[in-house]
Amino acid sequence: MDVAGTAATGVAGRRWNHAVVTGGAGFVGSHLCAALLAQGTAVTCVDDFCTGAAENVAQFADHPGFTLVRADVTEPFDTGGEPVDLVLHFASPASPADYLRLPLHTLDTGSTGTRNALALARRHEARFILASTSEAYGDPLQHPQNERYWGNVNPVGPRSVYDEAKRFAEALTTAEASAHGTDTGIVRLFNTYGPRMRGYDGRAVPTFIRQALAGEPLTVTGDGRQTRSLAYVDDTVRGVLAMAASDLLGPVNIGNPVEITMLDLAHRIIGLAGSSSTVRFIERPTDDPAVRCPDITLARGKLQWEPETGPDEGLARTIAWYRDRAAA
Hints:
Elements lengths: L7 E2 L5 E2 L1 E5 L4 H12 L3 E6 L6 H4 L8 E5 L15 E4 L6 H6 L1 H22 L2 E7 L26 H21 L3 E6 L2 E2 L10 H10 L4 E4 L5 E3 L1 E2 H13 L6 E3 L4 E3 H12 L5 E4 L14 H7 L7 H17 L1
Parallel strand pairs: 3-4, 3-6, 4-5, 6-7, 7-8, 8-13, 9-12, 10-15
Antiparallel strand pairs: 1-2, 11-14
C-alpha cells in the first residue's frame, strides 16, 4: 500500500496519510473509504463480512492506496505495520435484523472490538472516531434530542444488545481519552440511508424501496405515526470527516433535523418510484422509538456542518441505485 502522495486535509487543517476504517465494507464504512481515497488518503479497510459485503469495496481493489484486511475486530488485528493517523471505528451490526441475529457478536464488537480499535489508535497516536448511534437515546422523552440528554433505554429489551453496546463503547472511548490522552471523538449517527444498503436488512428505507419496486405492499409498523430523521449518506460522511478533523471529544449528533412519519415516508417512496404499491400495516416491534430527531446545534456551530441533500433528492438517488441493481 502506498501511503505517500497528497493526503486528505480536514476542515481544521488536519492531514490524513493513512486511515483505518473498521467495518469498511459495510454501508457507511464503504462510503467513508471512497471519500478518503478520493481525498488522497490511503485506506485500510478491516471487516469480517458478517454484515458487510465484498462488492461494496470491489471498486477499490486496484487502487494503490487501498488495502482490505479480513478480520474480526473482537480479536487483535494487524493493519500491516504502516503508520496510521486516523482510525474510524464503524464495525458493528447496525440493523435490527442483524443485531437480533447476532446479539453476542454485537455486544462483543461494541466492547472488545472498540477496545482493540482504541488500542490501535493509541499505539499510532492517531485520531479515533467512534460511530455511535441515535439509539443511545432509546425511546426518547426529550424531543428533539441534544447531546446532553442521557436517553431512555431498556437495558434488557430486544434492542438492548445494540443500544447498550454503543453506550458502553461511548463510555470506553471517553475513559480512554481520560486515562491515556488518546485523541478520541464520538459521533451519534441518525438514520442514514443511501446506495449500498442491503434490501433485506430490515430498516425502513431499503425495505420500502424494495417493496415499491416489486409492486408489493409497503409494510408499515404500527399506525405509521412514529417519526424518523433521515440523513443521506453523503451528508453523514461529510459530518464524520468534519468531526475527525476537529479536536472535539463529543458526542456530536450527525443527522437531519427534519422529521418524517413512517407512513409519509412510505407514500413518498411509492410516488418517487412510480409504483402502484399500497400500504399494509403490521405489528410494531418492541421498544420501537416513537420519535427520533437530532438537535444539530453543536455540529452546526463547532463543525460548520449540516445536511445538504433534500429528502426527495436523496430518496430518488437511492431508488435509482436499487433499480439499476435489479436490472443488472
